[in-house]
């Protein structure tokens, strides 16, 4: 089978979705599929080699097509659509001249040959609702949560046309992490005391504001460490929240070692937006589970699809005091925390990129019969 993975993403980049795309291409290829990742040729990327960046085998091809990439890095709507539509035109011409069996994509370009296209959805947006007819006519739909599946069914998509496949993790990436002491020395963190880590984008729906506020309710020896970036500069964040340690963005290949520095890992997603409450399957969730560290997370339907009271400490979302109490409780009960962390480490073995790819390929094969 020849599979073209079509994406408008800048490859590589420091966004989690680029890791997800790269890891899925690697996993599809490991399953015996000939894979070609087709992406825009962008003027500027943070790093050069995506295989080194994501710590992957070079077992699939990457094809970069022309797009009009003026003022790289800008998120202005005009430049975004100029870049995106010019890439769509390039990709349309490329697909016409290519031989393939399946187009797999997280995009929703209406011109892709529908009967050969499998769409992977990570949210339900107005455009998804408007394109429900095309989704019904596609080869199949892969979604990352039951929440997305339920909404698609309400739009008229049949159950048999949808596969729920949560995101995943490469367990090999986390098999030989640093010791806590070595990780803290490398990152310049205090060797004594207790560290509660958040690793990821600093977007509002990810609940970072709740984590900022929760620090007021933590003991002085418990420090919150945040590794990631958002719209505000690190200097501004450090001035606003002096008790928090901000480390900025770090390469994905360092993730296992960076997590080793933590005593507890925090997933404070907000319940105020559907993308957080119903649609998300965050990569950090599975990397947290693979770390063997206690997890304190918001009690949301999307996270409940993977987490429970057996493998995490679940707290009310958008409640700084509840989040702080969850962190305090996990730290004050080390035996219980170790038991839940061990359960999470066992549970995450069901969520590998390899198993996800095989499940999706089996779904695609069944849809072609």
Major sheet: order of its strands? Answer: 3-2-1-4-5-6-7
Uncertain runs are: none
Q: Would you give the CATH topology of the largest domain?
A: Rossmann fold
Largest sheet: 7 strands, parallel
> What Rg, in angstroms, do the CA atoms define?
21 Å
What is the CATH class of the largest domain?
A: Alpha Beta
Distance between the terminal alpha carbons, to the nearest Å? 14 Å
> What would the principal axes of the Cα set say about the shape?
globular
- The CATH architecture name of the largest domain reads 3-Layer(aba) Sandwich
SS field, number of helical segments: 16
Quickly count the domains. Answer: 2
For the secondary structure, the number of strands is 13
Average pLDDT number: 93
In what range is the share of β-strand residues? 15-25%
Percent helix, as a range, is: 25-40%
H/E order of the elements?
EHEHEHEEHHEHEHEHEHEHEHHEHEHHH
Q: Tell me the name of the CATH homologous superfamily of the largest domain.
A: Glycogen Phosphorylase B
């Amino acid at each position: 089978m020849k599979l073209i993975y079509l994406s408008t993403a800048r490859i590589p980049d420091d966004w989690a979705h680029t890791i997800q795309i790269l890891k899925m291409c690697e996993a599809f290829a490991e399953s015996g599929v000939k894979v070609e990742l087709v992406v825009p040729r962008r003027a500027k990327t943070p790093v050069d080699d995506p295989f080194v960046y994501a710590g992957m085998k070079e077992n699939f091809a990457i094809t970069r097509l022309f797009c009009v990439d003026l003022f790289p890095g800008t998120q202005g709507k005009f430049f975004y659509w100029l870049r995106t539509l010019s890439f769509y035109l390039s990709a349309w011409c490329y697909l016409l001249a290519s031989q393939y069996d399946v187009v797999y994509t997280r995009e929703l370009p209406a011109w892709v040959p529908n009967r050969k296209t499998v769409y992977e959805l990570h949210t339900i947006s107005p455009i998804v609702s408007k394109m429900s007819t095309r989704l019904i006519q596609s080869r199949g739909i892969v979604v990352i949560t039951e929440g997305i599946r339920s909404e698609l069914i309400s739009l008229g998509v049949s159950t048999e046309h949808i596969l729920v496949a949560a995101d995943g993790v490469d367990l090999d990436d986390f098999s030989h992490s640093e010791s806590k002491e070595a990780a803290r020395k490398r990152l310049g963190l205090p060797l004594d005391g207790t560290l509660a880590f958040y690793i990821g984008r600093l977007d509002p729906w990810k609940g970072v504001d709740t984590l900022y506020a929760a620090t007021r309710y933590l003991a002085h020896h418990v420090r919150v460490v945040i590794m990631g970036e958002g719209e505000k500069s690190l200097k501004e964040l450090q001035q606003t929240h002096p008790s928090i340690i901000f480390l900025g963005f770090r390469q994905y290949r360092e993730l296992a070692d960076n997590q080793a520095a933590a005593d507890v890992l925090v997933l404070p997603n907000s319940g105020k937006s559907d993308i957080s409450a119903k649609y998300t399957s965050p990569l950090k969730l599975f990397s947290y589970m693979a770390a063997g560290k206690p997890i304190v997370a918001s009690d949301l339907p999307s996270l409940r699809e993977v987490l429970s009271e057996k493998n995490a400490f679940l707290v009310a979302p958008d409640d700084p005091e509840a989040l702080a109490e969850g962190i305090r409780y996990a730290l004050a009960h080390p035996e219980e925390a170790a038991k839940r962390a061990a359960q999470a480490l066992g549970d995450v073995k069901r969520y590998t990129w390899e198993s996800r790819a095989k499940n999706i390929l089996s779904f695609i094969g069944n849809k072609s019969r």
